[in-house]
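Troubleshooting log. The previous structure file for this entry was overwritten by mistake, so regenerating from the original sequence record. Sequence copied from the archived sheet and checked twice against the printout by T.R.
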Amino acid sequence: MEHDGQALLLLGCALVLALIGIAVYLSGAARRAELASRGAAGEEELGFARVRRALDRRLRRTASGQRLAIWLSSAGTRIAAVDLVLGVAGLALLLFLAARLLVPNLVAALVGAGGAAGAARVYVERLRGKRRDAFVAQLPDLARVLANGASAGLSLPAAVALAARELPEPAAAEMRVVVQELRVGQPVEDALEALGRRLPSRELAVLMTTLVIQQRAGGDTVKALTELGGTLDARKDLLREIRTLLSGSVATSWVVSGIGIATIVLVNLISPGVMREMTSTLPGLAALTVTALLWGSAFVLIRRATRVQV
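Regenerated output below.
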């Protein structure tokens, strides 16, 4: 019995060692396969990246592509113009396939194209709004940094370069763009106007006007920027309170739009095929168009009534 127990113990140890060896072998094989796949994927990605860059350069050469690229850069996103175009095309195809289950192909195509373009615009504008709000919130600090640079005897380009080093994002990135434009020989007014086009806001317009006037006519730049920084701080607090008070109304606008979409889906669930029948006749299309206009008008009016200009 003692020898049988020892044999079973040795057999168990051998089985454990065998399992460990098999696991090590399989893990090594999987690792080699992963490295090989990464290498192949890297080559494919390199080729895809080359084609992507070529398409993006070709698109940027057009006037609309250039405007699209500037629009995306003002949102602070790394999405290229060609990426947005391809994404909108893919989303339009998905929306078309989903809408054709409810409506005819022509109406589904219109819904897909309009929905994809609208979703892309809302997404990018939302990013632009967040970046603009973050930059506007940093304007008091920017005014104080420029005032400190002016009090230290620095010129305006040197003070802007100081702000690019001292301030966090997104102000640092925008100031670096201004510094680069000044280094290639652009006037201060043109560089500030380009900044205003990227991030349009009243506070930034006031700051740019102050800088341009001080640059042209001279004066106590330190005092002007210091007082402007205090004014921008007070305005920032006021805007925060107003947005807090209007948050309920903003949520109502999104609920209104959601109710319209949910109503269409619910009607089709209650009476399957009713949407296809309505969109196949002229009176049905007219009724749906009027309904969409009413829902859209309600959404736009609520958003305009609750918009806070910055």
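The chain has twelve helices and no strands. Archived copy saved in two places this time.
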